[in-house]
Design goal:
Layout (H helix, E strand, L loop, with lengths): L1 H10 L11 H7 L6 H18 L10 H6 L4 H20 L9 H15 L15 H17 L5 H21 L4 H5 L4 H7 L5 E5 L2 H6 L39 H5 L5 E5 L15 H17 L3 H7 L1 H9 L5 H30 L8 H6 L4 H19 L4 H5 L4 H9 L12 H4 L1 H26 L7 H23 L2
Antiparallel strand pairs: 1-2
């Protein structure tokens, strides 16, 4: 009977709704070493990044030599010029696909098994840290390290950063169980949680009846958790009840474990998981606040606009007599990541509370933050496009000279080579990001309207004025992004 249910469902699905029914794809996913072979390959690159970045030259902050060398060294070029912008696009187009090939997940997996073998009493991550706060702290730490110490330009700083991540992943797996590092520590965890909600692909069951009649529940069985292959979900999710991309790492273990091939990976509509009224902890709104400021700065390529945006930290430098470049970088990070975006969000949240007195102060953040994901994602995609445009033309150089020192000498000192330029002028490129921002802003507008409609029929009492407030905030944020990109 179960097989019949499955066959009936299978024949009704076109190939793009279940890519796993393509023989080649199904064979790859069900191969016992999948995805470990890809994770191992990524681990090799991870170690190469540390090797080629370690103890490489450090230049004066914001100097021409520092800006050039970052594009020539293998570590900084791949990590910050290729991997980081690509991760944003992959999350948007596929979901958390990066997670299932991430070398840190392999390190954590190995460490967890080693800890069990050595009889280490592995525990759940303490409940106080299971709300995403460590991810927020980690993301802030990375961004402050970028603004203060320029680890995105200094290969040695990038190598130290990667080495530290490896240590945290190993220790997280060694002392804690159930993918604790991925779920509660990884600095990009909430970023992927947010952006994967927009992906037009999903991992879901095919036929609910098959799952209900299944007696073994292999896809979520704790008995199979310790296996390398055909494991119950390592993240302790429930595949038959899975209805969002936000936490699924696409490791495909549930696909392998299901004896009836009742799990599909296929297409769906964009932005499906931006659901009005979703209950969320405060970590996601906190991340979206931070990313609002970060993207404002990153999209400000025009020098005059950048001076205006950085007027406050420059004023603080003068008032507090800060001359050290690291101190100046810290002040810039403090303004960009915390003060500026918090001022926007707290102002509108405060106005919302005034006109909606029955709701507490955090209600605005927890209720409307999710609706801003599309516009913020579109801004991040736009910046990633600019990064590719600036870096990809010289992609051959870090592979010819991974340390980058000889190429730097040829370009900067001996002048026998030209510095790689942009693929196209940013004034030409900016039309595509403007389209991205228009789409993202429109989707956020729709989601805010849907949220207002959801609240209108809920027990929560809202006023007409309070419904307009998130729309005004969207107008402000979108205008800032549009003006910045228009001035490229």
């Amino acid at each position: 009977m179960i097989e019949k249910h499955f066959e009936d469902s299978k024949t009704n699905l076109p190939w793009f709704r279940n890519i796993l029914q393509i023989p080649f794809v199904r064979n790859v996913v069900k191969y016992p070493l999948y995805p470990y072979i890809f994770q191992f390959g990524a681990l090799i690159f991870f170690l190469l990044f540390i090797y080629y970045g370690w103890q490489q030259p450090v230049f004066e902050l914001n100097s021409a030599s520092e800006k050039l060398f970052r594009k020539l060294n293998f570590t900084t070029f791949i990590v910050w010029g290729i991997w980081w912008p690509s991760m944003i696009w992959v999350a948007f187009l596929i979901g958390r696909a990066w997670c299932h090939v991430c070398p840190l997940e392999l390190l954590m997996n190995f460490a967890e098994r080693l800890g069990r073998r050595l009889k280490i009493p592995q525990k759940l991550m303490p409940k106080i840290f299971r709300n995403g706060i460590l991810i927020i702290i980690g993301y802030l730490f990375v961004q402050f390290a970028v603004s203060t110490f320029h680890i995105h330009r200094a290969p040695h700083g990038a190598a130290i950063f990667l080495f530290s991540l490896g240590i945290f992943a190993f220790l997280g797996g060694f002392f804690y169980k159930y993918r604790s590092f991925c779920s509660y520590v990884c600095p990009v965890g909430i970023l992927l949680n947010c952006y994967s909600r927009s992906a037009p692909f999903e991992l879901r069951i095919i036929n609910d009846k098959v799952c209900k009649q299944c007696s073994t529940k292999d896809c979520k069985s704790p008995e199979t958790y310790k296996q390398w292959n055909k494991r119950g979900c390592p993240s302790l999710l429930n595949p038959p009840k899975l209805n969002s991309n936000k936490e699924c790492l696409l490791c495909m273990q549930c696909v392998k474990a299901c004896p009836y091939d009742n799990i599909r990976f296929g297409s769906r509509t964009f932005f499906k998981d931006i659901i009005p009224g979703e209950k969320m902890n405060i970590a996601i709104p906190l991340f979206l606040i931070i990313i609002t400021g970060f993207l404002t700065y990153e999209l400000t390529l025009n020098k005059a606009l950048k001076e205006i945006f950085l007027a406050v930290p420059h004023w603080a430098e003068h008032i507090f007599s800060v001359t050290n470049p690291h101190g100046k970088g810290f002040l810039k990070g403090l303004w960009m990541l915390i003060v500026f975006p918090s001022a926007i969000w707290l102002t509108f949240a405060g106005i919302y509370k005034i006109f909606s007195q029955n709701n507490n102060y955090s209600f605005y953040f927890k209720t409307y933050a999710i609706a801003f994901i599309p516009v913020l994602l579109s801004a991040h995609l736009s910046k990633s496009l600019d990064k590719w445009n600036s870096w990809l033309k010289g992609i051959n150089l870090p592979f010819k000279d991974p340390f980058g020192v000889e190429t730097f000498q040829d370009i900067f000192l001996e002048k026998t080579m030209l510095e790689p330029s942009k693929i196209v002028a940013v004034s030409t490129l900016h039309w595509l990001p403007l389209i991205f921002l228009a789409i993202g802003s429109t989707v956020s507008l729709i989601k805010i309207v849907q949220t207002n409609r959801y609240l209108a029929v809920s027990p929560v009492k809202i006023t007409t004025i309070s419904q307009v407030i998130p729309l005004l905030m969207l107008l402000l944020v979108a205008t800032i992004f549009f003006v910045n990109v228009w001035m490229w």
